[in-house]
Design a protein that fits this description.
Elements (H helix, E strand, L loop, with lengths): L8 E7 L8 H9 L3 E9 L9 H7 L3 E4 L9 H15 L5 E5 L6 H9 L3 E6 L5 H6 L2 E4 L17 H15 L6 E2 H11 L13 H6 L5 E5 L8 E5 L2
Parallel strand pairs: 1-2, 1-4, 2-3, 4-5, 5-6
Antiparallel strand pairs: 7-9, 8-9
Protein name: HTH OST-type domain-containing protein
Organism: Marinobacterium aestuarii
GO molecular function, one term: RNA nuclease activity
Length: 237
């Protein structure tokens, strides 16, 4: 992950038509660990009965509601308004990162465009979010894993075998002379290939715990390397 800190400025854009209202605070809490949230906007037709429950959430979290009337039945004009605002914010050159909150694939091109301008892109959406949007982000987080979620309700991931293959590939290509791979380096490589990867999806609190799910095929240990003792892993072959 790109190095973000409290001095980095983040713009949060919420597609209220395709976002979980109950997860909004958890999303902001997640982002607060990566920088300073400067802009918080939510888009939708606030005259619609479908969005009436958002009012309390917007007020409590100081999110600016942006009105967008549905001019044509069956067409989502919210997406267009969000994209236009995102480009205006991009051209202001005030932001280091954007967070797009939506389960809609229509924001795939926007995420790609922001990345072309060297802007870090967070995506937040449900498990149903199309993979095109998930992969267009630098870091995509499933909203189902945010907050106090019992482990048995976590969405899981049918691609766990693929993730294991990626870990083995990284180990084969980057392990040291003693056959150990730096866990932090492996996590960064994995995130580049699978932006939607998050250990919490599997009920693991950390990447270390996630790797331990593959035992005995993968062994995790602390190793002395220079002046430090990083966690490293080794594939048992």
């Amino acid at each position: 992950m790109k190095d973000l800190d409290q001095h980095k400025k983040i713009a949060v854009l919420v597609d209220a038509d395709n976002a979980q209202r109950s997860k909004t605070k958890h999303i902001l809490d997640e982002l607060s660990g990566h920088g300073h949230i400067v802009v918080k906007r939510a888009y939708g037709d606030w005259s619609s009965e479908n969005l009436k429950n958002w009012r309390t959430t917007l007020n409590e979290l100081a999110i600016q509601p942006c009105q967008q009337f549905a001019y044509t039945t069956g067409k989502n004009s919210t997406d267009g308004a969000m994209i236009i605002d995102a480009m205006d914010l991009l051209y202001s050159k005030r932001f280091d990162a954007f967070a797009i909150v939506s389960s809609d694939s229509d924001f795939t091109s926007l995420a790609s465009r922001l990345k072309q301008s060297e802007i870090y892109v967070f995506g937040f959406g449900e498990k149903k979010t199309p993979i095109s949007f998930r992969n267009a982000c630098d870091d995509f987080i499933f909203t189902e894993i945010l907050g106090d979620v019992p482990a048995e309700t976590l969405p899981g991931n049918p691609d766990m075998a693929q993730i294991k293959r990626l870990l083995i590939k990284a180990w084969r290509e980057h392990s040291d002379d003693e056959g150990w791979m730096n866990m932090g380096h492996a996590g960064s490589l994995l995130k580049r290939q699978r932006p939607d990867f998050d250990p919490r999806t599997f009920g693991a609190a950390s990447f270390k715990e996630f790797l331990q799910l593959f035992a005995p095929d993968i062994t995790v240990e602390q190793k002395q390397r220079g002046n430090g003792r990083p966690y490293m892993y080794q594939v048992v072959v």
